[in-house]
């Protein structure tokens, strides 16, 4: 008896499923079916909506798509900035790293400052910013060459100093050192300027 | 030129870990307190909403605070460790710290789970650092009046 009742249920169920998947079925919204579990639909078909409802639906969809595209654009921009800053050889991070290596390899400077030389940037006023970031400035001189100016602080166990980097862009678009010097205060004079690249006379000509 | 290198707003490296741990705990506890009290109030019968809110908050908010504190403390520890090892401060410190923190926190799940978590932590920190890098680049193009520099070129140093 139980089995017959089950097969009785299954027969009309199968027919409903066949009708649900056939192409020429009537609109589901108007169907009154016995089994709401199988064919429950809360979204109306496009052709069932009236014209103002179609406008609303289209606006909602386009707003959502616009939001997704805006988010993707922002994420892509940030990822581009991060990638170019970390991996490009023309970024300020790479230049800072290179300049710091030159400072560390300079014998006079490492004798004056001490052995592990630490480099960092400007301290920030906000508590949330943990790394003292290296700020740089792009400028153009009178001949139209582009310059990159950077200043960071070097600290060693014995002494500390300020390092100024002045780079100019050459014909290939790569940054070349024009001046690289470190000001170490307290050497008898207010500060002693040690040139690693360039000299005091190189700034006369752009 | 006055030496502006001393950073008086943050503690030096070993003690800043405690600061960050405490700050992260408060963020997690307060945020978790609000979140779980609302959730507890919503999921209680009508005449017991206050009790449900308080009970849920008491049960869950300290846990969330502890999770945040562990994450913040580990991140700060690895950040200080990297600063000591590399002896320079740049965006790589934060990104690597985030990656190592993510890896360590998922280490009990095996190497593969730890790697996935490390990648996720690193990319999250990379996005956060990216915002700072974008701001730094935009301020690099700005022009502000400053003191004239010793080198007498026809351009000026402009720094914050």
From TrEMBL, chain A:
GO terms for cellular component: TIM23 mitochondrial import inner membrane translocase complex. Keywords: Membrane, Mitochondrion, Mitochondrion inner membrane, Protein transport, Transit peptide, Translocation, Transmembrane, Transmembrane helix, Transport. The chain crosses the membrane at residues 63-83. Its main location: mitochondrion. It holds the Pfam family TIM21. GO terms for biological process: protein import into mitochondrial matrix. It is found in: Mitochondrion inner membrane. Component of the TIM23 complex. Belongs to the TIM21 family. PANTHER family: MITOCHONDRIAL IMPORT INNER MEMBRANE TRANSLOCASE SUBUNIT TIM21. Essential component of the TIM23 complex, a complex that mediates the translocation of transit peptide-containing proteins across the mitochondrial inner membrane. This is Mitochondrial import inner membrane translocase subunit Tim21. It comes from Umbelopsis vinacea.
TrEMBL record, chain B:
Belongs to the Tim17/Tim22/Tim23 family. The keyword Transport applies. PANTHER family: AT05822P-RELATED, MITOCHONDRIAL IMPORT INNER MEMBRANE TRANSLOCASE SUBUNIT TIM-17. Keywords: Membrane, Mitochondrion, Mitochondrion inner membrane, Protein transport, Translocation, Transmembrane, Transmembrane helix, Transport. GO terms for cellular component: TIM23 mitochondrial import inner membrane translocase complex. It is a multi-pass membrane protein. GO terms for biological process: protein import into mitochondrial matrix. It is found in: Mitochondrion inner membrane. Signal peptide: none annotated. It comes from Umbelopsis vinacea. The keyword Transmembrane helix applies. One of its GO terms (molecular function) is protein transmembrane transporter activity. This is Mitochondrial import inner membrane translocase subunit TIM17. Its main location: mitochondrion.
């Amino acid at each position: 008896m139980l089995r017959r009742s089950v097969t009785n249920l299954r027969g009309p169920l199968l027919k409903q499923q066949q009708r649900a998947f056939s192409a020429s079925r009537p609109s589901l919204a108007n169907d009154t079916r016995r089994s709401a579990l199988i064919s429950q639909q809360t979204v109306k078909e496009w052709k069932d909506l009236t014209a103002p409802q179609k406008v609303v639906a289209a606006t909602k969809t386009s707003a959502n798509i616009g939001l997704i595209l805006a988010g993707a654009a922002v994420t892509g921009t940030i990822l581009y900035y991060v990638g170019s800053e970390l991996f490009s050889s023309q970024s300020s991070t790479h230049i800072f790293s290179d300049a710091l290596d030159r400072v560390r390899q300079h014998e006079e400077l490492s004798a004056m400052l001490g052995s592990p030389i630490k480099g960092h940037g400007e301290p920030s006023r906000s508590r949330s910013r943990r790394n003292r970031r290296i700020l740089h400035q792009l400028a153009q001189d009178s001949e139209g060459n582009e310059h990159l100016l950077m200043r960071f602080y070097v600290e060693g166990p014995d002494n500390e100093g300020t390092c100024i980097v002045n780079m100019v862009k050459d014909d290939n678009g790569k940054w070349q050192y024009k001046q690289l010097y470190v000001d170490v205060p307290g050497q008898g004079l207010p500060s002693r300027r040690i040139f690693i690249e360039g000299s005091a006379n190189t700034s006369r000509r752009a | 030129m006055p030496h502006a290198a001393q950073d008086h707003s943050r503690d030096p490296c070993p003690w800043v870990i405690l600061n960050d741990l405490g700050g992260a705990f408060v963020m997690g506890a307060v945020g978790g307190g609000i979140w779980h009290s609302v959730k507890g109030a919503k999921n209680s019968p009508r005449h017991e909403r206050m009790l449900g809110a308080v009970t849920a908050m008491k049960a869950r908010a300290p846990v969330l605070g502890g999770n945040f504190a562990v994450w913040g403390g580990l991140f700060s520890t690895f950040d200080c460790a990297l600063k000591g090892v590399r002896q320079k401060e740049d965006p790589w410190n934060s990104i690597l710290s985030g990656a190592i923190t993510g890896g360590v926190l998922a280490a009990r799940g095996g190497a593969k789970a730890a790697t996935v978590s490390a990648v996720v932590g690193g990319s999250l920190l990379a996005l956060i650092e990216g915002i700072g890098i974008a701001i730094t680049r935009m301020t690099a193009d700005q022009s502000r009046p400053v003191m004239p520099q010793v080198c007498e070129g026809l351009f000026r140093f402009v720094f914050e």
